[in-house]
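Checklist before submission:
- one chain only
- standard amino acids only
- sequence pasted in full

Submission:
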Amino acid sequence: MFENKTILFALIFISTPSFSSYDPPTAAGVASSGMAGVTIGFDDSPLAAAVNAANLSSVSSSSFEALIGGVHTKSQGNFFGETKTGAGTFPIMGLAGVYQYDDNFILAVVATGAGGAGTDIRGITLPLPTGSPAVKADIKSALAIFELSPAIIYRFNRELAASIQQRNIYAGYQEELKVDGVTNHKMNLSGISYSGLKIGLSYRVSDSIRLGFSYKSEVKFDLNGEGQIASQMGTPIAPAGTDLSWRDFTLPQEIGLGLSFRLQENLLFGADAGTRKYSAIKKRDFDIDDDLLPGNESTTDNILKMKDTPFYRLGLQLSFNESYSIRTGYGLMYNASNPDFHNPFGPPPGINHIFAIGAGRSFQTSVVNGALVYSDAEGEARTSFTMGKKDRYKNTMISLQTGLTYSF
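Returned file contents:
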């Protein structure tokens, strides 16, 4: 086992961010983002298929939607006794096309992505034996997720529709640790999965009320690539070009229910509730080339101890002059992080609050939307940087998005 060779080496698997503790916004339509993500029973724009494709049963013609946006994150916490702030900025995107095949069948293809979700923390003073010269460390990490999901939607009648989708997911992870400006540790990993599934249902109770159900299967696959690992004093343990693997990288199962209710002709209320099943993710494994270090697996077996995370979203959309819409929403999500094994690059254990506003302008065959989303979380946790003590960690996120929907 190699995790005891050096303090820096241990950071490889302890500081590694994952979507289990840091969850970038999904590109499920700008209208949805303006309502804090309310989508399951509400949004019938093409990108709504990223969450519940059955909602597309409401569309009356073939259409296309494109979304582009940016996310800025900021994390603050204890790094070996010093309060440090890290920040990261990354793009998000979404593309979706819908084709009405006949009165019953609708076909759709959805592509969404968050590129480079992570952070950059500089000037961490590393704990060394008494008398040793102080050294500073810089840590960069980035995780990108892209998903392509073809969908088939079937309308049983005017009220009921169902959908099924295959999840094709690419994940890429990069990490670099520099000590006094010299690269000590670096990894570049990636992998692809074709095994995921999404199922959706949409039921129109009346002209004013619609209910939705969404299910995403757990997706588990390996990320493979190359990297280098050195000891605290720079001695090579695994030189550049060494084969590295992140075993069983996992995206959790998700189940949700949604409601949309037209309070007035021009006022729509939406709500989502659901859970992400993180408790099934029991371990995080890293391997390096067997020829270099026999018995090299580094496993955090059962130490993650993450909890299933419920989420709740509420949103309102007000339309006027038959062309304009304004939106607002609030979301609440319980973060999955284990308070005794927290990832300092993402939201700490506790509640994540999400606030959103948005607006839209309709034209004859197109709609232009914009949204601004803000979230914050704060809580106490232990990390590999707090030397066994609990400390407070903060995380904030701001996302600005714009999108265009075109019908033909």
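Reviewer check: The radius of gyration is 23 Å.
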